[in-house]
Write a structure and sequence with these properties.
The protein starts with 11 loop residues before the first strand and ends in a 7-residue tail after the last helix. With 266 residues, it is an alpha/beta fold. It contains nine helices and twelve strands. The strands form four sheets. Strands 2, 5, 6, 7, 8 and 12 form a six-stranded parallel β-sheet that branches. α1 packs parallel to α7 and α8 crosses α9.
Length: 266
C-alpha cells in the first residue's frame, strides 16, 4: 500500500470524473471508449494522486471534512468499477463516489446491487445519476422531481445508506437543478463543467474534471497544481455551444460518427 502524505486543511481541490476502466474482467458492453481508461494508466493516475495530492477520497467524505486530497467520482456504474477500479482504490486506501442509475443497475455491462452493496460496505459512496440516464434537460418539472426522488429512494433502499449527491447524466442540467435537487433530498449536485472544487460553493453545481482515455499523468499533475484548468473550461464552453446549437441528440450522433461509435457517444 502506498502511504499518502497528510492532507492540509484547504477547502479547495479538484474532483475527477471517471467512467469505465479497461482490463481483464472488464466487459465491453455499456462502455464508451472515449471515457474508458486502461487499468495500467488508471493505476499510474492513482499513484500520482497519492504522491502529489496526498491521496483521493469520495465527494461525500471530502465535503464532510474538506482537505488537500483530490475527489474521485465514477459515472454510470459500469461493471469495471467493481471488478477493477474498486480493488485498485482499496489497495491504496483511497475512496470514491459511484453515481449509478437504479433503473439500469445489473443490465449488461453494469454492476449489480450485490456488487454495489459490497463496495458500500467497504466505505465507497454510492450516489445518484438519475433513474435511467435520461437527460434532465428533456424532463419537465414534475418528471424531473419524480426521477430524482425515485432514484434516491431506490438506491437508499438497496444500499441501506443515505444518498446525498446527484450527478446529472451526460452533464445535461438546467440552471435550477441544484435548487430542485435540494428540494428532493440531495445536498449537492456535481456537474461536468471543469473547475476547482470549493467546499464553500455547494449551492451551485460543483465542477469535475472529465477523465478521458488519453489523460496522461503530467496533465493530471497540472490539474492538481491548478494549471490547465482554464484551457479545459474553454474547451467545455466550445462543446457546450455546439450542444446548444445542435441539440443533445443531434450533437451525440455527430460526435458518435466522428469517434466511430455510432449512437453510443455521450
Amino acid at each position: 500500500m502506498i502511504e499518502a502524505t497528510p492532507s492540509s486543511t484547504a477547502t479547495r481541490s479538484i474532483a475527477l470524473m471517471y467512467h469505465a476502466i479497461a482490463g481483464p474482467g472488464s466487459p465491453d458492453a455499456a462502455q464508451d471508449p472515449h471515457y474508458t481508461v486502461e487499468a495500467s494508466r488508471f493505476a499510474a493516475q492513482l499513484d500520482a494522486l497519492v504522491r502529489v495530492a496526498g491521496g483521493a477520497t469520495s465527494a461525500r467524505d471530502w465535503l464532510a471534512a474538506p482537505g488537500r486530497a483530490a475527489v474521485l467520482t465514477f459515472d454510470d456504474g459500469h461493471a469495471s468499477n467493481h471488478a477493477l477500479a474498486w480493488p485498485m482504490l482499496a489497495a491504496r486506501g483511497l475512496g470514491a463516489d459511484f453515481f449509478v442509475n437504479p433503473g439500469k443497475v445489473g443490465q449488461a455491462g453494469l454492476a449489480g446491487w450485490p456488487e454495489l452493496r459490497e463496495m458500500a460496505a467497504a466505505g465507497m459512496s454510492i450516489q445518484s445519476h438519475g433513474w435511467n440516464h435520461r437527460y434532465f434537460t428533456e424532463l419537465d418539472d414534475r418528471a424531473l422531481r419524480d426521477d430524482l426522488l425515485r432514484s434516491r429512494l431506490a438506491i437508499e433502499d438497496h444500499i441501506g445508506s443515505a444518498v446525498t449527491l446527484l450527478a446529472p447524466p451526460g452533464g445535461r442540467m438546467r440552471a435550477d437543478l441544484p435548487l430542485i435537487a435540494r428540494e428532493c433530498g440531495y445536498a449537492c449536485v456535481f456537474g461536468s463543467e471543469p473547475g476547482v472544487l470549493d467546499a464553500a460553493a455547494t449551492t451551485r453545481a460543483l465542477p469535475r474534471m472529465s477523465v478521458t482515455a488519453a489523460l496522461d499523468v503530467t496533465t493530471l499533475e497540472d490539474w492538481i497544481a491548478g494549471r490547465g484548468i482554464a484551457r479545459a473550461r474553454l474547451r467545455y464552453g466550445v462543446l457546450g455551444f455546439a450542444k446548444r446549437a445542435l441539440g443533445d441528440r443531434r450533437y451525440e450522433r455527430l460526435r458518435g460518427r466522428l469517434l466511430g461509435q455510432g449512437d453510443r457517444a455521450r
